Amino acid sequence: xxxxxxxxxxxxxxxxxxxxxxxxRVLVRLVYDTGRRGAGGQRPERLIRDVRSYLRxxxxxxxxxxxxEPLPIHEEPPILDRDSPAVWSPSSSSVxxxxxxxxx
Length: 104
Prior knowledge:
mainly alpha; 4 helices; 0% strand
């Protein structure tokens, strides 16, 4: 959470793409909701995986911006307090969303 907070005050200012800035802000909100508010407390494992999946979405999106490519389609962020046990993932099934390092 501390890393995301520091990024909010440094990296966010260097992102000039409006949509990309919003995706980063949503990530920060999700992290804070998870840590501070205890959102999704009934399903802590799903909650962690939701936030990790959204983090991956933001990372991939940022990679597109850095490479001068158009952003991937907008995805609604996960609703942390939902009842479903299913983990959030972007609707596109592109291989770019899976990260072998995190077992997805």
